[in-house]
Amino acid sequence: xxxxxxxxxxxxxxxxxxxxxFRLRSYQAxxxxxxxxxxxxxxxxxxxxKTHIALARTAAELENCNPDKLVWFLAxxxxxxxxxxxxxxxxxxxxxxxxxxxxxxxxxxxxxxxWDAVLKNIRVVVSTHAVLxxxxxxGFVQITQLALMIFDEAHHCTLKHPANQxxxxxxxxxxxxxxxxxxxxxxxLSASPVINAKAGGLQTIEQNLNAITKTPxxxxxxLIRFVHRPELTKVIYLSTQVGVLRSPPLLSSLEKIHSKLDxxxxxxxxxxxxxxKSGDTHAPRxxxxxxxxxxxxxxxxxxxxxxxxxDIHNELxxxxxxxxxxxxIMKYTTMxxxxxxxxxxxxxxxxxxxxxxxxxxxxxxxxxxxPLLTEHIxxxxxxxxxALITQSCPGFTGLIFVEQRAAVAALAxxxxxxxxxxxxxxxxxxxxxxxxxxRKGNIADLAEPRNQQQTLDDFRQGKKNLIIxxxxxxxxxxxxxxxxxxxxxxxxxxxxxxQRRGRARKxxxxxxxxxxxxxxxxxxxxxxxxxxxxxxxxxxxDLREIKSAEERELAEENEDLLFRIESTGALLTLDNASQHxxxxxALLQSSSYIDMRPQFSFDQDTDDMITATVTLPxxxxxxxRTAKSSRYWRTERNAKRDAAxxxxxxxxxxxxxNDNLLPxxxxxxxxxxxxxxxxRPSLILTAPRLDPWIGVAGQQLSxxxxxxxxxxxxxxxxxxxxxxxxxxxxxxPYIPPVVLHWNETKKYVVTAWPLDDKTYEAEEIQTMQxxxxxxxxxxxxxxxxEERYDFISLFVPGGPLEPWTFEQIxxxxxxxxxxxxxxxxxxxxxxxxxxxxIVHETGKAGAFIFKNIRLPESESTxxxxxxxxxxxxxxxxxxxxxxxxxxxPDRGAQVNEAYTAVQSIDARDCSISLLPASFAIFALxxxxxxxxxxxxxxxxxxxxxxxxPVSLPLSSLNLLVTATTxxxxxxxxxxxxxEFLGDCILKxxxxxxxxxxxxxxxxxxxxxxxxxxNSNGFLAKATLATGLDKFITTKAFTGAKWRPRYSQDILSxxxxxxxxxxxSTKLLADVVESLIGACYIxxxxxxxxxxxxxxxxxxxxxEPAECRTLLFxxxxxxxxxxxxxxxxxxxxxxxxxxxxLLEALTHASxxxxxxxxxxxxxxxxxxxxxxxxxxxxxxxxxxxxxLSHQKxxxxxxxxxxxxxxxFLAFEATVLEEQFSITINPVTGQPAPKPAPVAKALWQFLxxxxxxxxxxxxxxxxxxxASRDEILHELQHGQKYPWHLFAxxxxxxxxxxxxxxxIGAVYxxxxxxxxxxxxxxxxxxxxxxxxxxxxxxxxxxxxKERLGHLAVSDKVEYVPIGKVEDGRxxxxxxxxKKEIGGVAExxxxxxxxxxxxxxxxxxxxxxxxxxxxxxxxxxxxxxxxVEVGEAEVERGLKRQKTDEENWKIDTE
Length: 1451
Description:
The protein has 47 helices and 40 strands. With 1451 residues, the protein is α/β, with parallel strands linked by helices. It is elongated and about 155 Å long.
């Protein structure tokens, strides 16, 4: 081999990473921008990404032009059109794309109705030039219908070519008039060397296309980084003279038979003779011509077949020629047997005659195929094989260019079976396709390869690594970069040489040309020498350009740019600016398919001085997304550093970088306030709970004569109501009726009515104190050893309608003093047993409630009662329990009717109190009643102190009580439901406030800020800072060891230091969220934000109404895309500012022209996530009957998780009317047939990462595989199909755009929640939610359910084997038992979900019961089950932590 390169061979090119994420390179973006301003012809090397430019330019045009206009992409060959059609349809799924070719019988579309139907809702048409020319010529398409024409391989636009005819006949006439606004824009694409291949060719093409040729500025850094020039190598083979090689027997047999053919036996000649005899006047002339020329159809076929076989023999050897000839004969015979249409122009006799000739060829010596021996292979082919073997390597890809189509098939066959090449290469072929349905059959073509597109697909996917092709693969058609390109024959011109060279774009690639030795007569030495010199010069020019770029970049320059922050001393320099800038961009988002690096472009003036422009990722706000170097530099290196320096300064000025020159996300928290960290749960010391009786006692001390009265009514079925007046030194808050649980079935209810306050005389007060003591001593006498009367609250009897007078009270007091023997009641009226007091047995503890007294009537009665002779008292046991606020636990069928069973005791040993039992029962309830007043007094203090700015009404006290009552109190109304609501309200108001206050913050900043302000640690610190912790009730009321509190004791306790309880930061945070929820219930978002401003004053909160205005006003009016009508129909909302919708559909990887620039969807997704949560949570919280907070958690998670949203995004579509053309079986004429196309939201996503397309297609496949099963479960199942969603596992961007569109609708509608609800209704979220609520669908995640079923057993998910192709395998272990077998999924979480689902199915099947979701389970506050990321086991660990914290709080 001879290598053609510069003598020094000292290239130091540093190439780019081979697998970098795709985005428009700066020179491609430059060409798109140029095309938007004027008609241009992009002249760039093969493989430099002209197709990407065409895609970006098309998208930009369609987003802004009239929606009735078309982009027409024109390519010279059907193969190229077919390829580009798939490219456009794949990468621009939001737009209708149509491919028109001769195969569609376009020439038969002779009715305007058909053309109108074909182009209905089509925005991009791909065809050859001839198709458009024909449509324009017949008036079916008007040039004014086109917004943009793209001419691929634009160098064809010359002379009589259809491309030139389109421009000359239809474009130019309008261009020369005043109607220039109605003509389409022009974009030409061509390889730069091709355009310059002929003198004067460039100017001609520019004139014909009314465009200017543009070549992007070749940036030195990109030239060095991206251009991989192959090593040019010449392989010389030993040439052989024509006719020297021995022909294979089969070819010799064919030549011999052909030479001996009698033309008079030819069916065509015999047919002409018969025509002469029948009197055909034209037949004699045709017969004479045939006999003179010795030329018939059969003879032509044989002659062509012989010629091609000889060519193959000379190029490849006898084996290839023999194989090719046999293939043609075999396929011809097979085709005749199948009545193939390729030879329909022949008469039957001709087909039979040729078949007989070919069958005779296979006789005798030619019957056996030649073996694959060395002597049957040409020296040229042997040299090719040697070159291939030498270059073979792991990951090898290669391309061989061969001139003749027939030789392609023969060479492919030989390499596929040759023992040296067969194990190394998977060979494919590509010879292009013909579009003519009128092409006449030729027997010599039958061996040509088929299925061309599949070959290219297999090559791109790595299924084939070597393609043998004709020159059709030189231009336009997208072929993956190759390690080696071989020209089996020398290129015919410089154009072919350069275009073929452009296919070898891998690093360290080779470009090999097979050349005969000097003694060859196959090529003109002078011609080859001249062409070779041109090739060498072109190659060396490239190397010299790269070398020059490297040398210029090593030049030294003065560097004196500094930026110092005075407050910190932080310093930004040219040396560290680029590093800082890359770090900032890396923090914006982490994704394997998004290139978040800053991109640089360069401008060069006439003095070769350079400026640089840096463009930051689309996640960055447009105001600081680009920056330019401050001056001109000699090197791109320093211009780039300067641009990075200016960009970072601008980020600091915009507040995105702090005074330490670090991104805000890098800020370290100061020393934790109150020893509480924002991001770590902990137990902390808190203030003792507020004692509201201290203030009451103080008021009593200052105003001892004035009391505020409340009339209490104690009611129970079948008992007379009891009225008691409670007197307090301060006004008592209204409390709702208090239910007191006597036992499992019997209840008392205490209701309270406020009375006027009153001032009493000392005697009156003393009497009421004595009555209070008497009441309390009736139950708690054993704990009231001191004879004290300074009670904080007084209780006296009241009348049925109004309070008693003092005289009535005094009379009652005297009449209820003391006790008497029970036998004294024998003559009393026993019809009202409630009027009698408590019964005591002499010398025994315990008390009883009197029911009746019975005297024995006879001896038989005594015996039947099994009692000693004497009177008996029927009584009920007086309760020993003191907690009547809490329901007695349900024991199922075993109902405990405590304190209702009548028993008899000997009346002779009993006494009865004169205080009626109903008053003693009331005294029994006093601790419960006072406790209820106590927590309401605490709530009232909270309302009037910390929460005073919220201006909550008195009626909200019940909400405040609930909000400050922990679940550890065992109260039926605790903060858990309200905390669930408040968490959502805090989230949505935080998201609104942050998004409005920081319009230039990227989503990562917003998420970090929200995470900080919504964290348990931050909220716990706010609780401590505001003193809210002393209002929280965590201890359960038991009434055990209760004794009355005295005023003096209460006042003296104020100065005593109390023990500070340990509480979890989560509990403190929960109370903040529950208070926010309470304020929201009371007064909507306005009171909720005031509450947040009050409790979290360190943050700059903004009112929701102001947020909505700020967000709307911050949205620019442009760009205003014209192509999103289908999306607006899909989401049932018409945008005022359409750029919002465009932003909502722009992925972070997107790179496009400035005219269509927006931010990525991430900020809107951040907001939309909170809005969706708000809508769902509101419906859950207000549902009737009430849902437990555990069930609300599980349902919300099911309704907003990413997999569910992605599934609905696939399902929700809008039909776009389109038509296909079919042939009417009756008339044989083409006719339009409706073929509507369903468009889904994800198809409108704008992105630039090539990875996303593959991810989309894979997700579509998984969706289709599970779709029917998921739909059935969503519509009819009793369990939410978590495991099925784990199988679909769509990438996050599918669900992101659902939330970003919700955010866009919210902003554009100025906060209209109903508009957002219409979209999520149309998407199917609300219907699914309503079905879950209506049918009580269990939404508990399988991993959580498995944790419940395991009880105390440890649940493990054991990995099985290695992760292969992203597939993860695991096995569930519960205790030490394996359950459910090995499960597999895309990633760990999905596999574990599948495994848990199987295990749950087995365990529930064994148990025969269905575990209800959470209803009686311990709370998993804050557990989020998000398929793809959430770790549900954290919830199980948190449960244990919460239980431990509960124990601490209650001790």
